[in-house]
Write a structure and sequence with these properties.
With about 220 residues, the chain is α+β, with helices and mostly antiparallel strands. Helices cover about 30% and strands about 25% of the residues. It folds into two domains: about 15-60, no CATH class; about 65-224, Aminopeptidase. It is built from seven helices and ten strands. Helix 2 (about 75-80) packs across helix 5 (about 165-175).
Length: about 220
């Protein structure tokens, strides 16, 4: 489906330029669809302050970005790619529920987040990319928000070896299919683990410049 624009947020979010040294821009507001979309368009994303603290809006510096031509696929990961089938948006609720499993270390996705992103999914803005075994088991996946040429990755999970990485490979293949150089794959914070996949840290100013260009790009066909 084509995304449906929700009513605008009742909140006026600050500029991403107002972030503190930790990347925190603001605290409060809500998770209504209009607020979430305004945040992503402004270079921010929501996450609690601490594991169970108040709702925060973040714009890290540096920002984790994966160039679509920069994904590092090892030989073993290429073998794993043959073990799974990639599907899009066939099990969004199952993917976000797996990402929100409270048994996961560092888990922060509350029922409120699940409901909010479920609503974004129903409106055509949030998507899941899933790795399925050939006998029909959901082995891993990821979810995030797509706005024009931006895909803002939120979380991923795996139940079998390399399944979340295979879902990421599938996502990159679909985002780069039309060759539009404006597309941005945002992964929030750069980490050592993500660096092994090709994620780099981009200065906030550069990220916001790339974001502005990405928002002018059309939605990729993989979400339609």
């Amino acid at each position: 489906m084509r995304p449906v624009e929700p009513p605008p947020s009742v909140w006026e979010l600050p500029s991403a330029h107002d972030a503190d040294d930790e990347g925190l821009v603001a605290i409060g507001a809500d998770l209504e669809p209009g607020t979430l979309l305004a945040a992503y368009r402004g270079g921010m994303f929501p996450m609690p302050v601490g594991r169970s603290g108040p709702l925060g809006w973040w714009s890290p510096d540096p920002r984790g970005v994966l160039a679509l031509d920069g994904l590092q696929v090892s030989r073993s990961l290429r073998r794993s790619c043959r073990e799974y089938e990639i599907r899009v948006d066939t099990a969004f609720a199952d993917v976000i529920a797996a990402c929100a499993d409270p048994r996961r270390p560092g888990g922060w996705i509350t029922p409120g987040f699940e409901a909010a992103y479920g609503e974004l999914h129903a409106l055509g803005w949030a998507h899941s990319v899933e790795a399925w075994t050939h006998d029909g088991e959901l082995a891993g996946g990821l979810y995030g928000v797509a706005v024009g040429g931006l895909f803002a990755g939120e979380s991923m999970f795996h139940r079998r070896r390399d399944a979340s990485k295979v879902a990421l490979v599938g996502l990159v293949e679909r985002l780069r299919a039309d060759g539009d150089p404006r597309r941005v794959l945002d992964v929030q914070w750069p980490t050592d683990h993500l660096a092994t996949l090709g994620v780099i840290g981009v200065a906030r100013e550069e990220y916001l410049r790339r974001l502005a260009a990405a928002l002018e790009a059309p939605d990729p066909d993989c979400w339609v």
